[in-house]
Amino acid sequence: MQQTVNKEIAKSRIYSLDILRGVVIILCVFLTAIPKGDYEYHFAHHADWYGITLIDFILPAFITMIGTSMAIGYKKGVNWLKLSKRTFLFILYGLIFTMIISWNLDFATLRFTGVLQLFAIIGVLTAIITRITQSPLKIMIIALFITSLYGGFVISFSEGCSESLPQPTCNPSQPIDSFIFGENHLYHQGKPGYDPEGLLVSLSALSNSLIGFAMGRILLNRKTGTVWKQLFIYGSIIVIFAFIWKEFLPFNKKIWTPSFSLLTAGATCLSLSFLYLIYDHFQISKQTSLLNPINFFLEGFGRNSFFNLFREFYP
């Protein structure tokens, strides 16, 4: 009986999603291993403010795939009790981890924000919003609306900034997050002028999760045989919108501008389209044994991504 259940689970898994998560984790491990002072490898270091590098894709890609996994895991409905428990634990673990890596038990200066807290907030908001509709197209439209609303607010706030663009010391993140959490409880106690995992950024990063959720809904219809085409079309459209937004707000991970959110989500969608075509549509891994060692390695990281990833993104 147990063997039958295991076979059904294995059959229902989307191999390409595990592989993509594995690729993201491997990139994370190797890129973060490059010394920060080695500027010859600029792609391995986060952009100082405007711009985007390879490592900047890691966190938003993972958030996008969290949305994808939620769509698959919640296909029969949300267990709100389990979701509430997971949210509480994510926030608790995030606070504990912050104390460990900063070696600081002073609650007066404990950072309340962080990557795991970001995951927790986005997870709850995604679950709530996707109760409205399960249509991939409508969910993506909602994601575009949210990131555009955020972008409009940032542009309006930044009219008095240099070049009328957000700057490290002139952007809405610092005053809003300081008001909510208190300056001493932000990233570097608010001294950089922004919080890369603050509440304001979380609202923008929500677009990544929603687009990922839409991707998951598309994957659930894989019997149609056109999944990879749908992912490719949606991913291409999202990337086009990213470059449209770039004309108003350049790529910026620190405050998660709409162009950054859409480019990273679109790139994740296109990558999944390519991998789905290879691994789930043509099932190339079953036709050749040459890739088995690589696939085994990537799949192992992809299925156990949480413990390999979350420590990498704390400043």
Automatic annotation (TrEMBL):
InterPro entries membership: HGSNAT_cat
Keywords in alphabetical order: Membrane, Transmembrane, Transmembrane helix
Stretches that traverse the bilayer: 12-34, 49-74, 86-105, 111-132, 139-158, 199-219, 231-248, 260-279
Ranges of residues in domain Heparan-alpha-glucosaminide N-acetyltransferase catalytic: 13-149
Keyword presence, Transmembrane: yes
Official protein name in the record: Heparan-alpha-glucosaminide N-acetyltransferase domain-containing protein
Species for this entry: Bacillus carboniphilus
Taxonomic path: Bacteria, Bacillati, Bacillota, Bacilli, Bacillales
